[in-house]
Amino acid sequence: MRPDELADIERHLRDAARRDGISDFVIGVAVFRDRKLLVVRRVPDDYRGGMYELPGGGVESGETFAECVVRELFEETGLRVRAITDFLGGFDYATRTKSRVRKYSFVVEAEPGQVALAPGEHDAHAWIDATALDNLPMAPDMRETVSMLVHLS
After folding, report:
1. How far apart are CA 153 and CA 151, in angstroms?
2. Distance, C-alpha 36 to centroid of its chain
3. Rounded Cα gap, residues 140 and 120, in angstroms
């Protein structure tokens, strides 16, 4: 996606969220290799501990969604984004501290490299296809997103 396309998408998403009273955003990042999707497992003592999810995290103040995609993928996996290729949509959920957060997910093409997990945040990763999905613990909203992705790959 071109930078101007990403900026237009973000502008529309932020406007819609503002109308819905949402000001907190989280970004999920979908990375494929050899038709398999990267998922990471949260450390046991964290919120949703032991659950698999897409790499990602909260959008910081003043940060664009595209900047968050790049930063979060690198911080959580050590992988670098080559290009953001698609926008997948979003959903709302509650956290321990916020009653409503909107999560948007993007597909990226990553540079070659080994996954290096952020200590204290994730303790395992897997490259999965549709056959592996049922064997991994995931929150229902994440399972829906991941299921859609692995069935498209």
Report:
1. 6
2. 15
3. 23
The answer to whether 150 touches 128, Cβ cutoff 8 Å, is: yes
Q: Residue 46 half-sphere exposure, CB side, CA atoms within 13 Å?
A: 13
Q: Mean pLDDT across the stretch 43-52? A: 85
- 3-148 sits in which CATH class? alpha beta
- Please state, in angstroms and rounded to a whole number, the distance separating the CA atoms of residues 153 and 142: 17
Look-up of token digits 């990763």: 125
Q: What is the pTM of this model?
A: 0.91
32, HSE (Cβ side, Cα atoms, 13 Å): 16
* Strand ranges inside the chain, DSSP E: 25-33, 36-42, 52-53, 56-58, 81-93, 101-110, 122-128
pLDDT 10s digits, 76-122: 999 999 999 999 888 888 777 787 899 999 999 999 999 999 888 99
